[in-house]
Amino acid sequence: MRKSLILIATLFLSNWAFAQWKGKEYVVDQDPKVQQKLEEWQDLKLGFFVHWGAYSVDGLCESWPIVSEDVDWLTPHEDLDAFRKQYFDLPKRFNPTKFDANQWADLAEEMGAKYFVFTTKHHDGFTMWDTKETDYKITNPEFPYAKAPQADVTKALFDAMRAKDMMIGAYISKPDWHHPHYWSKSFQSPGRNVNYKIDRHPDWWKSFTDFFYNQVEELMTGYGDIDILWLDGAWADKNNLKQDMKMDEVGNMCRENQPGILVVDRWVGGPWENYRTPEQHIPSESNPIPWETNMTVNCCFSYRFEESVETNVKSGRELTHKFIDIVAKGGNLLLNLGASPEGWFNAEEIKSVRQLGKWIHANENAIYGTRAIAPFAEANIRYTREKEGEKVYAVVLLEEGEQMNKAMFPGCLVAKGAKIKDVATGKYVKYSRQGNSTLVDMPKKAGEAQFAIAFEISKVESMAGKKVGKDQAAIDAENRNL
Length: 482
Description:
alpha/beta; TIM Barrel; Immunoglobulin-like; signal
């Protein structure tokens, strides 16, 4: 029996990666179509996230350099007003002549991604589709890319990714620093928030929220099936300076046009945050609330020139280990690449995501469609399980050059008579039961195959000291509806 519709975020106050949700409720959406979509989304495990806008022309951080805030990830400008003018003029130089949406879709498939989220508009307000609401858009006839065959890059990308059977996610910023009724020209803009008192200028605020609603409606009605609305800019919220974005109206409109769509009003809590999105961090523990870590392949979300000291590209091994860790804890990974001003990606980053993809494609049975099972993670072992059925998967994470003759599966006692096989090769391996754990023979591998070795266990007797037998789907349902 359902005990409540709400999971209070205090369930994970011990988990620092979820600290931004302290005191904010998670509401289980009772719409069957939303529940089905959420279940399907949790099967997919890996999403391809791309930040792309005119800021790529100069290899800048997305949007944030124009904010008058002394934050640790930005270098102050000598003349912010002059820089803002230069920044807002970047679309005049943005001409991504090498952009090919089908090539992006091929890369997404290679890396093992099953869904795609694109920054249709970041906080700076530059719109990457043919919106009717503003001229500050990639299809503005005054901008150089406007007459290109794929000038409406959002449409081109969504169509190409959909052709690969991927879920489609539209990222859009709630605040818009280019809009005259978010950052009014009547006042200075001291920070990321609206720069006027909404109580004194309700007509300005209505103009802005109507604009936001209309832009979202364009995406919901003119760009095919959309599975996820990924909203950024949590400070634009009714509980902060009365920035009421009319989310009930926006959300209901989305559901009318896109039944079952997942709405992710991130870091806000409440009924329009269908899953949670820790940024650049992996939770230390599993959690019953649906979640997705969004993480960059290099240090940053936006494009950095290859000679930049800021790149710090994660290796294919590091990405693989992080991904496996996330899946074992019940989450998804939304992996970000920043696109270049020409419309492609850095070579080293492409190399890393392709290596990740090679490992995933060889071991996909241990990844796609699985669910978490305690003890989740022990030492260098990560566990997953079939959503339905008895199979459990144990994945051994290996460092470069590391070769092990045997590996212990702590807290995983294989049932008597069960079989264990190497997922990638299908070959069975020898094992022995050791207390409440299992000791297995390790095959020798090289290249991407050596990043981690996944084993399929036909049946387990106990996990984390607890007998396995109760239908795990029922357990998950109970956990989501505490």
